[in-house]
Amino acid sequence: MASGRRRDRYTEVAITLHWVMALGIIVLAGIGLTMVHVHLSLSRRFALYQLHKSIGVTILLAAFLRLVWRLRHDPPALPALMSRLERSTAHWGHIALYFFLFALPLTGWALVSASVLKVPTRLYGTIPWPHLPILSTLHDKAPVEAVLKRVHRYGAWTLLVVVAGHAAAALRHHFIQRDDVLLRMLPRLTKRSRPQIGLSGQNTV
Questions:
Q1: What's 131's DSSP letter?
Q2: What is d(CA 60, CA 123) in angstroms, rounded to the nearest whole number?
Q3: Out of 60, 126, 142, 158, which residue is the most buried by the measure of CB atoms under 10 Å away?
Q4: Interior angle at CA 139, CA 135 and CA 145, nearest 5
C-alpha cells in the first residue's frame, strides 16, 4: 500500500531504477539489432547473447523492485491543467510500460529455455541463471522456440514504440507545457526548479 504522502518529485530509489531500466532498454535494442543484422564471429555473437540475457534479467529484477517501491510510495500528482484524455493516456501508458518491462524479459527467458542449442546462461559471465523447467525439458523444442522468437521480436519493437511515446510525452511537458513532469524524474543536480503549475491530486501509476 502506498504511503499517501504527497511528493513534489519521485524518490531517489524510483529515479535510479527508472534510469537503470531506460539505459538497459537502449543498450538491449542496440545489442539486439547488432546480433541480427551485423556479421559477427561465433565467439563475439556468443558474448553479445550472454550480455543481452544478463541485461534482460537486470531489467526484470529492476522492474520488480520498481513496482514494489511504487506500491509503497505515492508518485507526484499530475499537473492540474492536464486534460482527462491526457491523464488517461498517461495512466495506460505507464501500465503498458510495466507490462512490457516484465513481458519482454520473461519471453526472452522462455526463448532461451526452449532453445534447441541448450546454451547455459551466466549473468555477466559470473552468476549462473537457470532455464525454465518445463520449456527446458520439451522433446520437440524447435516449434516452441520459433513461436517465442517471433513473440519476443514483435514485443521488443512494441516496447520501443511505447518507450518512444513515453519520452515524447515527457519532452512535450518540458518544452511545450513547461511544467515539472520531466524534472521530477531527473537526478537532483540543483535545488532550483520550475514553479509547479497546480496539482490535480491524481497520480500516475
A1: P
A2: 13
A3: 60
A4: 50
Q: Is 201 helix (H, G, I), strand (E, B) or coil?
A: strand
Q: Give the integer Cα–Cα distance in Å for 186 and 161.
A: 22
The CA distances from residue 38 to 33, 35, 111, in Å, are: 8, 6, 21
Q: Is 156 left (phi over 0), alpha (psi -120 to 50) or beta?
A: alpha
What are the structural domains, with CATH classification, of the chain? 12-187 (1.20.950.20)
Read off the DSSP letter of residue 191: S
Residue reference for cell 510510495: 73
User: Which residue's C-alpha cell is 541463471?
Assistant: 129
Residue for grid cell 550480455: 51
Other beta carbons within 10 Å of 15: 16
Please, which residues have CB within 8 angstroms of residue 187's CB and are 6 or more apart in sequence? 12, 15, 19
On the question of pLDDT at 45 being above 70, the answer is yes
- The Cα-based distances of 203 to 90, 134, 188 in angstroms read 10, 40, 21
Cell, residue 186: 531527473
Q: What is the Cα–Cα distance from 52 to 152, expressed in whole angstroms?
A: 13
Q: How far is residue 175 CA from its own chain's centroid?
A: 24
How sure is the predictor about 6, in pLDDT bands with cuts at 50, 70 and 90? Answer: low
- Write out pLDDT tens, residues 129-142: 999 999 999 999 99
